[in-house]
Amino acid sequence: MKIEVVDKDGSGILNKLADAIGASVRGRFIDIPEKLGEGYMTGFNWGNDLRMMIRNYYLKEEIVLERKNIIPEGQENVIFFLSGIFDSSVQKEKLLPEQPNVFICMQSVSSVIAMPQNTFFRSITISASRDYLKQRFSELQHPVISNILSSQDTFAYETGISPAMVTTAGEMIHQLVPQSLESHYNKLKCEELLCHIFAMLLQREQTPASGIHIKDIKAIYSIKFYLQSNLDKAPDIASLAKEAGMSEPKLRKLFKQTFGKGVFEYYQFMRMQEAARLLKEKHLSVSEAGYELGFTNLSHFSRVFEQHIGLKPKKYSAL
Fold first, then answer.
1. Could you give the CA distance from residue 215 to residue 110 in angstroms, rounded to a whole number?
2. What whole-number distance in Å separates Cα of residue 50 and Cα of residue 130?
3. What is the mean pLDDT of each run of 10 residues along the chain (319 residues)?
4. From the CB of residue 275, how many other CB atoms can be counted at a distance below 10 Å?
5. Cβ-count burial 64-81 (b if 16+ within 10 Å, e if not)
6. Reported pTM
């Protein structure tokens, strides 16, 4: 199913998406129709400066959402899309979890969002005005943060999901406050998530950040998805650069600027995240997980795993 949503006034897409898929409304919750899947969307609006949408559902068929933003002049909002943020330890069989990460861009960037079937979406989207963000984070000295707060160029950044973010998000889902305090409570939690995101960004190398063209964003993400789909093969930078239509130095620069890691470093990071999933959720043995991810030397696999996860794979799988 392909849906086109046009956001002309910056009010968000929650109700527009609900109308497009025929969802029913239950208070502040929008329930996914049974024919399409199960779960809900919900959100809060604290004026033009801060809004939040929560997605907690799975789909039986793929939905491709083409979002076109037509933002009034002078209104500059930054989008923080936190995917895979909720605990997925209790998961329906045959459903895939979202890849956990935080994607940051300007709201004015029109986008196409693919929501595959049999995938559980557990995400939070925060839209914050630059004025609002500057009031709270302008004292932070870092090129990436300065770019988010002030740059007139297009930008795209991605960072990981920290345990603190998962905890905060879980408290939003399982909140224990009266309904009369819901809005205030969730605003505080929303601000808490922003603090955790900026804390993650502060850990990056302080290298100058430059604007990035939308076509280059698409090319960089095509490379990311290629790496995700080929975790058993070491990346060939020359071939990836040629496929992306850019030079190797440009590819290396834009990739590290976007993800905070070089191509091979990011590949190893995703590789170890998948290894952890295979050990914990699929209950594979250490040798089975290592071989599935292309390692021929299990001692090397164990060393790389410990570098990224903090524990040797055998000890991690026993937890």
1. 12
2. 10
3. 59 68 80 86 89 86 63 73 75 60 78 62 91 95 93 90 90 87 95 97 88 89 91 93 93 94 93 90 90 93 92 89
4. 26
5. ebebebeeeeeebbbbbb
6. 0.84
